Amino acid sequence: MTEAKPLNVLFLCTHNSARSILAEALLNHMGKGKFKAFSAGSSPKDNQQPNPLAIATLEKAGISTQGLTSKNWDVFALPDAPHMDLVITVCDNAAGEVCPYWPGQPATAHWGYADPSEAVGGEEEKLEAFKQTMHQIGRRLDLFISLPLASLSKMAIEETARDLAKK
Which residue stretches of the chain are H helix? Predict the structure, then answer.
């Protein structure tokens, strides 16, 4: 019996520097090859880089940050882009924007998280905000990856991903 191809999941946010970066790294770490996560932003700033506190939080948790970059979501609408099975917005701004046409019309869901980069206080408080956001994303991803995805249709994946937004 051959292994099922990984489920491609794209996480979207406005700048692709914090929440979507955390989600991409976490799913690639937790998914153990069953998932291939990507991230992008609707309007990353010129020369946008992943937030250094997001990178530090992931590294402290032992999660690889190799290859994480901020990019515009348009790159995933190009003909040679990987086909997405599921697109999840992780910030309310991106959820309300008109997304590009995704080849293959993937399932979609919205999982809203507060922006840890807007946390107030010193370095310690800001790092704690990133850690809390990472744990919130991780809890939802833990439920998601435990699903028997090989037996789920596109509609069931979409419904399940949307239901997880309520948890």
Answer: 19-30, 52-60, 92-95, 123-145, 154-164
